[in-house]
Amino acid sequence: MSSSSVADHPIGIDFGGRGIKAAPVDLGRGDFAGDRQRIATPDPATPDAVADVFVELLASLAKAEGIDGSTSPVGVTVPGIVRHGVVGSAANIDDAWIGTDADALFTKATGRAVRVLNDADAAGLAEVRFGAARGQNGLVVVTTLGTGIGSAFVHDGVLVPNTELGHLEIDGHVAESRAANSVRESEDLTWEKWARRLTTYYRTLERLFSPDLIVVGGGVSKHAASFLPMVELETPIIPALLLNKAGIIGAALHAAEG
Ligand code: BGC
Hints:
Helices cover 33% and strands 24% of the residues. By secondary structure, it is an alpha/beta fold. It has 2 domains: 3-118 and 245-257, ATPase, nucleotide binding domain (Nucleotidyltransferase, domain 5); 132-241, ATPase, nucleotide binding domain (Nucleotidyltransferase, domain 5, 2-Layer Sandwich). Strands 1, 2, 3, 4, 5 and 8 form a 6-stranded mixed sheet that branches. A hairpin with a 3-residue loop joins strand 1 and strand 2 (19-26). The radius of gyration is 18 Å and the shape is globular. The mean pLDDT is 94. Beta-D-glucopyranose binds next to helix 3. Residues 79-81, 89, 91-92, 118-120, 144, 146, 148, 150, 164, 166-167, 176 line the site of beta-D-glucopyranose.
């Protein structure tokens, strides 16, 4: 158990398509240090509208914990490429994000030191430090199967950011347009059919990158028993452990140590 008070804990914010969620994170235990707060994602989810939600979330976290919290670092996930705080792609978010200096925008809006990173990179950091890939050396590839497909490369515990392997072109298709969980839902694919698409996808990753371990995250990973045993691969492939906590925990880790 960490002996620090809630006020010292970094805060992670996970910016998703449906909800924006925030919690203080205890990096000693790799878990939330207080209640999670959630606000529905604004529509349209422009950078300014999202920054307003962050301000509200930080205020309600401070109120819930009965603290000021203004000195704790804040980490934020964004579902796009993030280079040195600047968002470089917007496959599943408002186009207004492209070219936005999100570190600067959120730091100004919240009056806190805010550090932004890609959502899958956050999940990757969290799974390697505290979750399914804890203690794994070599190359761990963490993928998130959701609206799109996110990816993180973590080599000997060090993140190589912005790998964007959901956008690999395979057999003439962008991989996430065939194998994301949203496609399974919209095309009403059986687990078997989806597992065949996932096999094609993960075999490509295996051939190109020779990972030591593949971790499958995203909300659907809680149903891993229904599809993962049908994904045929040489490389060990396992479900994520932290589920919908991974983004928040990884964001807080990045803010505190990144
Ligand atoms: C984006 C990635 C993101 C992934 C999961 C993709 O469409 O390009 O940056 O990590 O979706 O949200």
